[in-house]
Amino acid sequence: MTDSIIEKKNSYAERPVVLKAQHVSKYFKLPTEQATGLKQAFINWTKGIKGYKRQDVLKDINFEVHQGEFFGIVGRNGGGKSTLLKLISQIYYPENGSIEVSGKLVPFIELGVGFNPELTGRENIYLNGSLLGFSKEEVDDMYDDIVEFAELEEFMDQKLKNYSSGMQVRLAFSVAIKAQGDILVLDEVLAVGDEAFQRKCDDFFTEIKKDPSKTVVLVTHDMNSVKRYCTRAMMISHGEVIAIGDPESVSEQYTMENLRAEKRATERQRAENGGYPNGLNEKCPILRTTAVSSPLLTSNESFKFEVEYQYDEPGDFYLAIAVHDLRRGGITYDTGSKTFKMNQHGHHTVQFELPLNLFNNGEFRIYTSLRTPSATNPHATDAVGVAIDDRACDFAIRDKRNRDFALLSDRALTITPVDADAVTVE
């Protein structure tokens, strides 16, 4: 593991280890040249053409999961998370290293895998149970709980192909989480079904955290789920373990990795396009918004940023600044098009400060536009250039006092009852 890995002591450390990965590596051979017959294969061999390139998906992975833990695995797409889950579930086998599992492991990697649309719901439960390694007697014992949780009692003797997609999801998910295994392996499945079923799943995961005999391994991109359910988390990037520790720390590192990756992607796009960056032109060749303070802050802090611009044309011009909510959508705040009248033409940099005490947790992006007075409307301005893509500026708020759902914090806005005798505020 690298020096950047975070590992904090946790209350589960004294419990037995039920899942252990030691120096696990996995690669795939990706075809680069197809041999259509023995003759072509022989020719390729004599020329030293392998016909494939090696893709290293996982590199020297090491971690332990203790009994009773709710262990989260996070990382960007392509980082190796799903491959690791398939190794844990023994769908794949590692090239190097070993994975040891103690207890009955129930994988739930893809919805509906192992289901047959020509069989009834009842038959599919027994089929899926047998694929998970349960005997008929064991499935008999679990059957009522599965059907009750899925809320499909009336449909169990209908063929699965007649189920709606939502009903199929509920049945498949119910088989996985109600199977009486010791270790439950889940891949991005906390948002299945309708709202009522999601609430039921939420209650289930809240209860399973209290069961010291049940262990859950969850792969997800949802940091709210990691912080809500997980007792520990691990982050994988480019096939390597970057961090292991408390969910809050790992979630913050994942957020920062996302922000850096978005910047790199837009920089590549700009290099490919050539000429002026997207949104800029000859009149406004430079317009960039850059973080001065850390992009990860609490609500007590202010986010400091600077705007670099170049404008050599005569006449008045302005900077307009808008804050967009990346998670919830919409414009969080807009300064207006004539708030900041600039006094210096040419190439300059000006610094701004944004207080964050009103906001709940979230991820935000600042867009800046350079504007000139409108020729047709004296109260309006026209955009000359806009700082977007890698020239926009991202920041995130993480504060334990905040909530995640709404934009405004309770310190910014609180609804109070007029009739205090009729309402109890908790």
Automatic annotation (TrEMBL):
Gene Ontology MF annotations: ABC-type transporter activity; ATP binding; ATP hydrolysis activity
Residue ranges of domain ABC transporter in the record: 19-263
Keyword Nucleotide-binding: yes
GO cellular component, one term: membrane
Protein's UniProt keywords contain Nucleotide-binding: yes
Keywords assigned by UniProt, alphabetized: ATP-binding, Nucleotide-binding, Transport
Family: Belongs to the ABC transporter superfamily.
Protein name according to UniProt: ATP-binding cassette domain-containing protein
Organism: Alloscardovia theropitheci
